[in-house]
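Subject: Sanity check before I submit

Could someone independently write out the structure tokens for this chain? I want to compare against mine line by line before I put it in a report. The sequence has 423 residues.
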Amino acid sequence: MNQYDIVIIGGGPAGLAAADAAYEAGNSNILILERDRELGGILNQCIHNGFGLHTFKEELTGPEYAARFVERITDKRIEYRLNTMVLSVTPEKIITAMSAELGIYQIQAKAVILAMGCRERPRGALNIPGFRPAGVYSAGTAQRIVNLEGYLPGKEVVILGSGDIGLIMARRMTLEGAKVKLVAELLPFSGGLKRNIVQCLDDFGIPLKLRTTVVEIDGKERVKGVVIAQVGDDGKPISDTREYISCDTLLLSVGLIPENELSVSMGVAIESATNGPIVNESFETTIEGVFACGNVLHVHDLVDYVSQEAAWAGRSAAAYAGEGKDTETIKQEILIRTESGVRYSVPKTIRPDKVHDNMIIRFRVRDVYRDAWIRVYFDGEMIMEKRKKVMAPGEMEEILLKKDKLTNNHDLKEIVIKVEQDA
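---
Independent answer below. Compare away.
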């Protein structure tokens, strides 16, 4: 059985950044396993700009951003295997993988980094009545067809869901000559970044209909149109608001699901709010020596944040692989609890003696809040607050906890993050 210090599952932006950071931390015995035919992951089909402003201090397209990290991997001669499917990972960090070239084989790792990314929620999860005609695509599939395969999926388009991929594809389809009739969103707010609403919808005159969903797909061989309807506070369609929209294509941008089948099968604890692993300050899961980063952990809005968290995971994995099993008694482990409008936090726990620098806590809010405060409490005592003009679920929030605040509170048991509004 081949042995490696660190095996990274996934060669997208998270896996590449983790490998690069692990190497820089002094560990070169690294293997990346990628199921696609090339490194870079989803970035290869994201030809729009807006990537890299935090990481490289310049605006890049998705392929350009990926190429920067691929170049680092090749320059460092970090080993990677393409067209390789990982079948299972055990808590003992034995990876079973398969490829046409090598068949089925096993690898023993000292540390494993989970970086499998996420997938789109399909039509089957939506229970929309109708046949299964041609012309219904997930937004990401349509993006691949247009940007990589060079085909236009349709000429008259309705988009269900206002996630970032759906917003970007509204602009992309328009630029390719299609007519995007509308974007329908079930919730009372968009799930995408504000800048994407402005640049992809407002700039092109594409209407965004909130509290609206598709209730029927018309067409047997090919989509002929859809029926949309407004929804009430209970999320159910209001029958007398039904409206028929003719179209030949329906794109679905109805959420992303972290690819955690491997994580669950090996026994990693999952956070219900994110469908990703529960991790500590080192991005280590509940299985020692198994780390997680990128969209398999929680769905990000900026790839720069993916790279930042993945680098943290890579350095942690390198330290673990070098030191072996952690035999030190953990002096203190602090739980991070979220309430009053905060959905979740990454990480979920912090061990102050393992924090090497100031700690960034990222989270999302449950609703749209205006003129509200993010407040942080240490065992009930408020120690930090930050005023925000606008907060929305589509944009990730963060707070910075200074290392000395954590290490100086020896009896601290719990950190609570809340959204609060003044009376």
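---
OP: Matches mine. For the report I'm noting this point. The mean pLDDT is 93.
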